[in-house]
Amino acid sequence: MNPATVLGMIGGIFLLAVTIALTARDYSAFWNLPGLGIVLGGTIAATLVSYPLHEVLRVFRVFIIVLRHERYYAKEDMEEIVEVSRQWFKGNLAAIETRLGDIRNPYLRMGIQLVIDDTPLDDILTLLQWRMTRLRAKETAEAQVFRTMAMYAPAFGMLGTLVGLINMLFGMQGADFESIGVNLGIALITTFYGIILANLVFKPIAIKMERRTEQRVMLMNMVLEGITLMSKGRSPAYIRETLKSFMARYEDEIRQ
Question: What mean pLDDT value characterizes the chain?
Answer without folding.
Answer: 83
